[in-house]
Amino acid sequence: MSKVSARGLVKVYGQGDTLVRALDGVDVDLDGAHLTAVMGPSGSGKSTLMHCLAGLDRATAGTIVVDGTEIGRMSQRRLTALRRTRVGFVFQSYNLVPTLTAEENITLPLDIARATVDRAWFDEVVAAVGLENRLHHRPAELSGGQQQRVACARALVSRPSVVFADEPTGNLDSRSSAEVLGFLRRSVDELGQTVVMVTHDPRAASYAHRVLFLADGRIAGDLMDPTQQTVLDALGEMAS
Amino acid sequence: MIRVALRGVRAHLVRFVLSVLAVTLGVAFVVGSFAFRSVLSATFEDIIATTVVADTYVRGSEPLAQAPAAGGGSVTGFGDPREPVPLSVVDDVAAVDGVARASADASGPVVLVGADGTPVVTTGPPSTALPVYDDDPALTLSGGTWPRGPDEIVLEDSAAATAGLTVGDATQVVLGDAPQDVTVVGTFSIEASAAGAILVGIDEETALATFAPDGVVSTISVFAEDGVGEEELTARVAEVLPSGAEAVTGDEARAEASAGVEQILGFVETFLLVFAAISLVVSTFIIANTFSMSVRERMRELALLRALGASPQQVFRSILTQALVVGVLGAGVGIVAGAGLVRLIQVVLAAQGMEFGGTVRLGSDDITVAVAVGVGVSLAAAAVPARRAATIPPVQAMRDEVAPERQTRVLTVVGTLVLVVGAGLLALASALGRSVDGVGVSFLDDLDPRWLLGLGAAGVLLGALLVSPALARPVLTTLAWPLLPLRPLGRLARGNVTRNPRRTASTAGALMIGMALVSVTGVIAASTQASVRSIVENEVAADYVVDSATLTVPEDAVAAVENVAGVERTDPVRLGGVASDDGDVTLAGVEPGFFSTALDVVVDDGDPDGALDAGEAVVGRIAARERGWAVGDTLTLGREASTQVTVGAVVDSQIVTTDLVLPQSMVDDLLPPSQQTVRVVYVTAADGTDLATLRTDLQSAVEPFVVLTVLDSEELASSFADQVTQVLAILYALLALSIVIALLGIVNTLALSIIERTREIGLLRAVGLGRLQLAGVIAIEAVMISLYGTVLGVAVGIAIGAALPGVLADEGLSTLAIPWDQVLGVFGAAVVIGLIASVWPAIRAARLPVLDAVTVD
């Protein structure tokens, strides 16, 4: 059964002359324990899709079910609770709290939810991202790759149903990108997580189990077990 | 560039609103002070113009030594008090050709009993009885008839309203000594408003009998016949006057009266302006903070301008232009608000029976000053941030990361030095004031402790402001410690307030100034009350004290008290003033034995009771120090140097504050009875008398005199302490404004830092922080900033306050008392201030749309 599914998703911005249909009837089912990449050119609606699926933004029409719960009718309060308990985020620009240490940043969602930290799981996640020696540093004292790994660990520590990653490697060099992507893939393969990642980098997409292509607010392609080459080919087909 | 600056203000209006508001409050206070003075001035000018109406006044040519604490005053009084003129002069003057009428101005204090049977009390303005004449041009009968005989009075309209009396009512007045039953036979109006004064008109004979019993009067009003000018009349009158009397024109008299009023109003204005200055200093912090944050936030925009070829001067000017706009707007609104404030005060006072007739008038000078102050404060506050913005290299500013905070080390070192020097000066001031012989180092002993105190206080305050950024992190970390279990709110809030110590410090600095002043005031209040209470309680040896609300105990009441059964001895204290070879001196006349039965004072030198027995003077410590008197010195008293007196003892008394205490017989030789007033009467019970019974008897004996109260030493101490409390209440009210401005500063800083942290807040919301939790974080931040300012302020205030008892020991501030309950209250207030300040920023933060906040660039 799929972790996240959407039916007839429409998102409209503006009105009249300035009306933009960012999403124009999208149907998707994202499987559990999969790393799914969402690709598409700028303006194709991939970020909007992710924001809607994650409950950060409201769709104009359509239904979204996350982990068996319909979120379209949820109040802001319940959406906040959903984000706190079922969803993890990784942003392009890391978005760590500069005044907290790496460890405090990682446990932040649990602190907010007043949940106790599962030390064994915490240690496992920290070991997986390789940050054992950096836990007491502040974000300013970490490299970009390290900061993004802290962000990944934060997204996983509360065992969310699904992790959404918005261009997680957008600000990183290739070596750091490989570390972060390798970790996201391992978290699926070894820890059983579900990860949805928006990217425009074919190499990043090649780490995924499945790639969804978006164009003009519609699903334009669906590729299983991609390689960098098959992704590039698919993109080439869409462009032609 | 100017266009960029103005667009900047318009685009970020909200950000500047609080700065404008800060300037507005400060300027409003300044303008309010000016306007209040002009209203008072206009009111008193009106009163003078309508009450000092005679064409010529005859008065004594020699100034009179100032008598202390004589109850009430005369509305028609002008200039300094002078030697009185004999009543016989009135007839001589009336006979002069061209004189329509000459009348003695026999007016003086009165107590009017209102319709409810209690004396009509005014808060400041006098209650005055004055003789009224049928043809008096200054007064118009508005109802009933003029008084005929001692049992009839007329009331000024507003006095009648205040007392609740109407024509035909029977009531009582205390005129001079005895209370008498009278009937209100009429009401009259004066052309000006009475400004809260109670005016009671009586017939001429009663007035002369009451206020000129020994045949002398302070002034004589002379009115000219038609066609005779003031100058001419005055010259003619002058010819018939005996030596010791002079004639002045009505214009001169009015000018003198105005000058006297203006001088007092000048003090009032200066006093208010000091507090206006404090608010403006506090405003400076807010404006500086706003601009430095706005500059930080716009660093990239400014760098872009630099990259496009704008010079540092242009950037500097563009920011100063914004400051100019803030200053002008603030001053403009402030002028209106200040005038409105005074109007409000007028309405409130009028509602309480103090009618001030003057309209709010603001001269172009006042407005110029107000605008200059508003703009000046604004420009000065923006100068430092503007300079920082102008000098930053464009490339550095273009980078994503905001430039790190500059080192605060130099400031910290300088601040520590200033702090230490300030504290040293305070300690020195305290040591100098406390010791009689000084500290033994001659050049230090020559310094005035008060100057040292002022310099030290300024040093400690300035030092604390400079050190504050360095102290912020450790102090705030400590303050936040109890909040840390509140995960993650406490930790987040602590992080936010310690992340930019300089900003936190300058936000808290505004509050610190206000809180320091509040603490000093509190320490003064508590210390004064503690000192006064202990001294007064210890000093009064008598069993009871008869005190008067009018500060004058009628002679008849003294006799009545003497006749109460069980009274062993009464000690009336009669006050007066007299000239001496060392300037005018105030004196108190008492019976020998006073210093064993009535008061038990601290004796510095000599034997006070022995001195009184021997016909010698007892002098107070302050007078002895100021005038250089010592035991054995001989003083010459009286206009004709008629009396020689030897100083027999030096004492330190909180209760008798006249320069000299003399045996009553000697005072009687120096002054006629009309120039002596009984201030209080000390009552000593005979052995074996039940004190409670005596008290009841005393109370019934003085009851007919309406204004008298019987106090024991503890109650007397309380009444002294209450006076202190009243004065301090006014200070607190004025200081509250600076605290309000500081509160605005916290709002400002939080609101701006939320704009700065938009993305971070978005993240927190994205990972599930609820709105209430977010509001909680911001509330904790506000409370911590507020507490930090208060901690520093209270520390500074107590440090300054601790030096006061030493310096002000002579003024009766001998015991240091720190009002710990009040300090706790101040901290409680700080929490409340923080919470109030956080409301708006918290709402703003909670309303940030999560998605926008996360994706903001």
TrEMBL record, chain A:
InterPro entries: AAA+_ATPase, ABC_transporter-like_ATP-bd, ABC_transpr_LolD-like, MacB-like_ATP-bd, P-loop_NTPase. One of its GO terms (cellular component) is membrane protein complex. GO terms for molecular function: ATP binding; ATP hydrolysis activity; transmembrane transporter activity. The keyword Nucleotide-binding applies. Keywords: ATP-binding, Nucleotide-binding, Transport. Residues 4-239 form the ABC transporter domain. It comes from the Bacteria. This is Putative ABC transport system ATP-binding protein.
